[in-house]
């Protein structure tokens, strides 16, 4: 397009594609794209990810909403968040005691995924970890989610379920239509987004390689739309809960005080779909990914634990064949038992082979297996067992001008079955910061497939 820069063309294509299919996502069209946002941090590793989430939670005055695919109340990450909720509760109580004004309890909503029936059996049978047993369902009353299974009034976290407006819901699914998004949103103004689950495997001597980002600004309201849609479609057999209103009953502080243009961002989502034959890409997430790859002129970098989306494999091949340098960083053997079937789409190795066969200009394609830069002397992690240091990071950068990060893997499950949420940053500085923190160190240490 004459007079329009390559970066502007890329931004226009991605935004147009995502808005065209807004109805298949979870965010209202007017909240998908926003300006005035700030990238506060890029946090590498579970300790840093959940410490930053805890820092956000401590600032809460009105509302904390948390969603995750997996929540282990005994994990270091969960304890960081729960300790932060205690601090927020104490701050709220102190403020109430020093004021004559009426006081509302801090609203806390925790949404977790729960596979049932076939979905539960399949996940356990194909787990990379040796302990595949478990109850029919874990209790989902609030006390259980803070680790107070006996509902003791003396438990450290008993004040959270007693003195906060603390509700839990679970997204129950018997097919592959899970909720896979992970986020913490505070007061509709600040948010932390990650691919990491709240699990012990993200901590310790050899944790999974993952990252989170923290932002503030109006994009938090788009992310809240995503949470609200999931919450209002979820249930809890163990607690009476209430729907979450789409509109806040208070004004987010950053929305009232922001005076700078800040970053333009997009909240890119897709709704969960139970249909195991679904191949539709007409949703904000998939269409944004495909528009970005199709519009790329110079470089594409992708980092994903799972890779087999047919549409993406073909789009990357087309990009390489038109002279775009394509760099793909995969986790070796990740979830092979779970994905080596037609419905799930096949292993990373098989997808990499399909991609290579489709590329005629081989000099423009480089596919590598992840080697953990935090433990450079260790071999390439193979598989997805806890404690092997494999990468669980999800990342795409295009032309140094756009970066998309969040919960979505580049596989059939994330593209066609599960509910996902990602953030797109239309900014060279943000792209450089995230890419330099997440992708570049891992790429430099990794090995050719």
UniProtKB/TrEMBL annotation:
Protein name (database record): PLD phosphodiesterase domain-containing protein
Species: Xanthomonas citri pv. phaseoli var. fuscans
Gene Ontology biological-process entries: cardiolipin biosynthetic process
Taxon lineage: Bacteria, Pseudomonadati, Pseudomonadota, Gammaproteobacteria, Lysobacterales
GO terms assigned for molecular function: phosphatidyltransferase activity
Record SMART domains: PLDc
Domain of life: Bacteria
Domain PLD phosphodiesterase residue range list: 175-202, 387-414
PROSITE patterns reported in the protein's UniProt record: PLD (PS50035)
Pfam name, any one: PLDc_2
């Amino acid at each position: 397009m004459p007079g329009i820069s390559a970066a502007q063309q890329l931004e226009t294509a991605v935004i147009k594609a995502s808005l065209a299919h807004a109805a298949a996502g979870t965010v209202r069209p007017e909240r998908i794209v926003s300006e005035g946002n700030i990238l506060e941090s890029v946090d590498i590793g579970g300790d840093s990810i959940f410490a930053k989430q805890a820092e956000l939670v401590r600032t809460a005055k009105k509302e904390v909403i948390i969603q995750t695919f997996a929540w282990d109340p005994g994990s270091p990450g969960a304890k960081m968040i729960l300790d932060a909720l205690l601090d927020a509760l104490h701050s709220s109580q102190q403020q109430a005691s020093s004021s004559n004004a009426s006081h509302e309890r801090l609203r806390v909503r925790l949404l977790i995924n729960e596979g049932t029936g076939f979905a539960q059996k399949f996940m356990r049978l194909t787990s990379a970890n040796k302990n595949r047993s478990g109850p029919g369902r874990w209790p989902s009353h609030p006390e259980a989610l803070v680790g107070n299974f006996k509902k003791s009034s003396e438990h450290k976290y008993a004040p959270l379920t007693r003195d906060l407006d603390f509700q839990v819901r679970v997204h129950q699914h018997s097919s592959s239509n899970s909720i896979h998004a992970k986020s913490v949103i505070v007061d509709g103004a600040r948010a932390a987004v990650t691919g990491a689950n709240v699990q012990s495997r993200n901590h310790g001597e050899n944790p999974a390689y993952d990252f989170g980002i923290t932002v503030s600004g109006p994009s938090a309201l788009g992310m809240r739309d995503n949470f609200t849609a999931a919450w209002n479609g979820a249930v809890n057999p163990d607690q009476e809960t209430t729907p979450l209103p789409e509109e806040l009953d208070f004004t987010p502080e950053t929305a009232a005080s922001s005076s700078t243009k800040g970053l333009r961002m997009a909240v890119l989502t897709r709704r969960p779909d139970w249909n195991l034959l679904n191949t539709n890409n007409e949703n904000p997430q998939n269409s944004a990914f495909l528009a970005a790859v199709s519009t790329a002129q110079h470089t594409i970098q992708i980092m994903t634990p799972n890779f087999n989306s047919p549409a993406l494999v073909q789009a990357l091949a087309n990009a390489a064949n038109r002279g775009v340098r394509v760099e793909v960083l995969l986790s070796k053997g990740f979830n092979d038992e779970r994905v080596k079937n037609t419905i799930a789409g096949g292993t990373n190795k098989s997808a990499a082979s399909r991609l290579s066969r489709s590329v005629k200009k081989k000099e423009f394609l480089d596919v590598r297996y992840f080697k953990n830069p935090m433990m450079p002397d260790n071999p390439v992690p193979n598989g997805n067992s806890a404690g092997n240091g494999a990468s669980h990071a999800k990342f795409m950068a295009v032309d140094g001008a756009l970066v998309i990060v969040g919960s979505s893997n580049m596989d059939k499950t994330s593209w066609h079955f599960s509910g996902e949420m990602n953030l797109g940053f239309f900014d060279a500085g943000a792209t450089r910061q995230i890419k330099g923190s997440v992708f570049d160190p891992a790429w430099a240490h990794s090995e050719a497939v």
